[in-house]
Amino acid sequence: MATVAEPIVHERRVESQLKTNTLNLFDTTVIATSSVAPAYSLAASVALVFAFVGLASPAAILVSFIPVLFIAIAYYYLNRMDPNCGASYSWVSRTLNPYIGWFSGWVQLAANVLFCASAPIVAGAYTMQLLNSVFPGQISADAAGNKYWIAGVGAAWLALVTFMVVRGIRITANFQWILVAIEYLIVLGFALAAIIKVIGGQHATNAVASSWFNPGSVGFGALASSLALGVFFFWGWDTAANVNEESKAADENPGRAGIISMFILLFIFLIAAIAMQLVISQDAFADPNNSTNILYYFAQQLASSPLTYLMILAVVSSTVATMQTTLLPSSRLSFSMARDGVFPKAFATVHRSWLTPWVGTIITAVFALVVIVVTLLSDSVSTVFANLILNIGVLVAVYYGVTGIACTWAFRKVLASGAKMFIFAGLLPFIGGVALLALSGFIEYQSWTTDITTAMPVLVTMALGIPLLILAVVTNRSGFFRQKTVSYVMVDGRLTAAPTASVS
Questions:
Q1: Whose CB has fewer CB within 10 Å in the chain, the N or C terminal residue?
Q2: pLDDT on residue 294
Q3: Which domain holds residue 189?
Q4: H-assigned helices in 82-168
């Protein structure tokens, strides 16, 4: 078995140092699972997945899990060699190509900002719904559905989590523990209650069939669209890698946390999807009124108020948690890019006492607020929201895919050293990378030929990245784009980095 050399540590100024050795494996795993936010993902996406594949949604979840798991394995191997908070951006730049690495980082930042804009809207909507349910005399149904109130409450949540991320990684992790406990206990509790009722003799609305788990039971185009949503389902575990510089055992724990969280998430997604299909009719899934409210409708099939209010609380806690843990990777990624001299210098500013990239965090939150305001101007917020989720899934598939290919390329010289290295550092990341890039290309082609407006967020993001990349190249003074890429080689039984080629 190969041993790993000391991790690569780039030269960093003392004033640009984050708070090291703070998070243990459990903290990092909680942050990874919280970043995915199962309750939020189910509330926002499961009805959309059902619209594409019907009762085969468990199959879509399973198929989506496989390539993303392969990328999680790639993250594990790349993080072992280079625990940099820029994660994918840093690894792709260092091992594949700095231009591709920068562009990959830009895609991730864009996905994060889009999500930071959509998540507060969901948090605001569910918070107002909860207040209307608990205090109907004080908060009317009209007020609960008012888009300006929803946006205002969502912005307040965004401000709160921004303060916590700025205040410190420890307070952020502690808050995540609380939110994850609320979310998981409630979602699992309702899911198990549904399954137990059916096992106990209650008639199932939809009888379990093998087609639920068979991806071949749906058309390729519908399955591909559902897979993009499935990638969105699992997106977020890589936050564990973005907090690696603040973690204990920085070269091991973040990668382990990512893989562990993937299996935890697969379990809860499958249990919840199966339970929902047992008690919710196909007409109810297809009802537009349930498109982003399906979890609450699910709870209503199992219990009456006030117990059903718990599911609203679960979605609120989940959405707030993932909002916070999306700011985390955004601020760490932009910090890493600014530290390398390829992003505005302000993003590398670290608070003297809290040791967090506070300026970059606030700037990201402000950009998200701008997108929220733009969303308010739309007459069909639900349509914008649905398209936004699909486009985020496409952007995630792009940077995940590039990372998988970069992993195979980085370890290409040692893949013949053993079956384990060949399979886990080479073959699986490559398969996952190619599959996700192909998926993103197909979805964009499909959107282009059917309704170009659904493809615009991704196309605009990609187009905007080109002049920004040129600007980064022109203004860079650190030699980042002229650095020699590295590959990992075996020296005296230890993996180490060796220069491979210069980039002109």
A1: C
A2: 85
A3: 3-501
A4: 88-95, 98-134, 141-144, 147-167
